[in-house]
Amino acid sequence: MNSPEPSKISPSSTAGIGESEYLSLRLGTEEYIIGILQVQEIRSYEEPTRMVNAPMFVKGVINLRGVIVPIVDMRLKLGLPDAEYNDFTVVIVLRVHGTVIGVVVDAVSDVVSVRADTIKPAPQFQTMVDSRFITGLVTQGERTLIVMNIQALLDPSELGMNH
């Protein structure tokens, strides 16, 4: 059996063989990336409805076409300084662990293709961001991108949610 030519494997994708696509986003001065396959949509920030007894980093919930979606402020979740919400502030709607969750970020930049073998382990410094939430680092030209482990970061037990 002849193997298909690479150009015919995934004509709609810009990622090459062994590459995955990630959405780059900004939190403060740092650029992070998350797997594009978990992203459902990107929407402008709207003030969510507050929930009593929710963890500090859960801003509240929004009704997204009949689905109640918790909204997590990624800066607060990661222990970073509070953000000023502005015109660039967006909510990335993700599907994680079978649950739809919105995350507030300072801005989204672009979609980048990353080869798995270019992801370097993150140094284990005593940083503000918990190392469980970071998969590694990728350097692309002048950019250093921090690969987020969105599965660990948005685990229902981390969010104080009953699953």
TrEMBL record:
It is found in: Cytoplasm. Residues 19-159 form the CheW-like domain. GO terms for cellular component: cytosol. GO terms for biological process: chemotaxis; signal transduction. Keywords: Cytoplasm. This is Chemotaxis protein CheW. It comes from Candidatus Symbiobacter mobilis CR. The lineage of its organism: Bacteria, Pseudomonadati, Pseudomonadota, Betaproteobacteria, Burkholderiales.
